[in-house]
Design goal:
It is built from twelve helices and twelve strands. It has about 350 residues and is an alpha/beta fold. The chain has two domains: about 10-30 and about 255-354, Aspartate Aminotransferase, domain 1, CATH 3.90.1150; about 45-255, Aspartate Aminotransferase, domain 2, CATH 3.40.640.10. The strands form two sheets. Strands 2-8-7-6-5-3-4 form a seven-stranded mixed β-sheet, with helices on both faces. It has a five-stranded mixed β-sheet with strand order 1-11-12-10-9. The two termini are about 35 Å apart. The structure holds pyridoxal-5'-phosphate. Pyridoxal-5'-phosphate binds near residues 80, 174, 206 and 217.
């Protein structure tokens, strides 16, 4: 079966291509926190029984965490599943505006429903002070926002996004990486959902907790919209094991806040350090980022560099050709722990000098 391996996080498939074991690869193509919390084993019953179709405990835990009503919350099989349902509403609402470069999964979701879309180019140079003002997105009916923005790492200021809620019939705001960004929560739109039925916020537990394999995300939106999505989708989109884990992770606000502070400190420290180190690498320029990944660009194609890193150093970086508007002169590097960041830098320096 053909899948687009330019999306990050393909350790297994690339190990097969490269003729090595998956655990020999350093995967800096998918941007996850470098640690995964210790988790209690699920009870036998939570695996044996069908999951609760109402997702009551999990919806309650997420709602309490954000100070919402449980009817404003819908857990999903990762943020990716929820994009599919958001896109169904978006297709009906009219012309979709996709800032470019942007995360390719929004286009995938929109294509599912034959939606009309327009790419709005974002400036490919930006200053290092965060947050930044979201650039004028031009005309359209539905706006897809990613905060912080993947792949640029820009953090959009909340006022600059709030202003757009009155201009678009529907705003879909992907906050998958926001809990990893220091002071990021100040720019969340979640608290605006109650007075804006035209707003959908989508979150993911994948990045913050390093649990991409479990598939856990949630949408925050008006109850009647979520009720409709619930009626469309399959009866058990979040499996019992994932639900059990999610309640542990988000149902204890003290634990969540200690964990996110640790992750945010790491984003801050490693982000600054990598920026400085990359600035000294010959032939590439790192761009400022508030998030746990950053872009580098070059005057020439970086694909040979990427290939050498894979083949000789067993390091995976993110091919940026899957982001509309970027080409082979760009790569995205996900932050890792210091030892692994050093390994990436050493391999890059050696390859760029060759
Ligand atoms: C911006 C953004 N949003 C959402 C997702 C998907 O999150 P999930 O793993 O919860 O489906 C990704 C995955 O790469 C992403 O980059």
């Amino acid at each position: 079966m053909a899948v687009d391996l330019r999306h990050g996080g393909n350790r297994e498939a690339l190990a097969e291509q490269l003729g090595c074991r998956p655990d020999q690869l350093l995967d800096a193509s998918a941007s996850l926190a470098p640690w995964t919390p210790r988790l209690r084993r699920p009870s036998r019953q939570s695996v044996r029984d069908y999951p609760d179709r109402r997702q009551q405990r999990l919806r309650q835990a997420i709602a309490e965490f954000h100070g919402l009503d449980p009817h404003q919350v819908l857990p999903g099989n990762g943020a990716a599943e929820l994009f599919t349902w958001a896109a169904r509403d978006a297709a009906r609402a009219g012309l979709n505006v996709l800032p470019a470069p942007g995360f390719a999964d929004y286009s995938r979701a929109l294509s599912t429903w034959q939606a009309t879309k327009r790419h709005e180019p974002l400036p490919l140079r930006w200053a290092s002070g965060f947050p930044q003002t979201f650039p004028d997105p031009g005309w359209g009916d539905v706006l897809w926002v990613c905060n912080p923005h993947n792949p640029t790492g820009q953090l959009w200021s909340r006022p600059s996004l709030e202003f757009l809620l009155d201009r678009f019939a529907l705003v879909i705001c992907d906050e998958a990486f926001l809990p990893l960004v220091p002071q990021g929560e100040q720019h969340s739109l979640i608290s605006r959902v109650t007075d804006h039925p035209n707003l959908v916020v989508i979150r993911s537990l994948t990045k913050l907790f390093g649990i991409a394999g479990l598939r856990l995300g949630y949408a925050v939106a008006a109850p009647d919209r979520l009720q409709q999505w619930q009626a469309w989708r399959d009866p058990w989109p979040v499996n019992g094991f994932a639900e059990h884990v999610a309640v542990q992770l988000i149902g204890n606000s003290g634990r969540y806040s200690r964990w996110s502070q640790r992750v945010q400190r790491w984003t801050d420290q490693e982000g600054h350090w990598m920026q400085q180190q990359l600035a000294d690498c010959p032939g590439v320029e790192p761009l400022p980022s508030a998030a746990n990944f950053l872009l580098i660009r070059s005057e020439r194609s970086l694909l040979p560099v990427k290939a050498t890193l894979e083949q000789r150093h067993r390091i995976l970086l993110r091919d940026c050709r899957s982001f509309h508007g970027l080409d082979q002169r760009w790569l995205r590097i996900s932050l890792m722990q210091r030892r692994d960041n050093r390994r990436i830098l050493a391999a890059l320096r050696q390859t760029l000098k060759a």
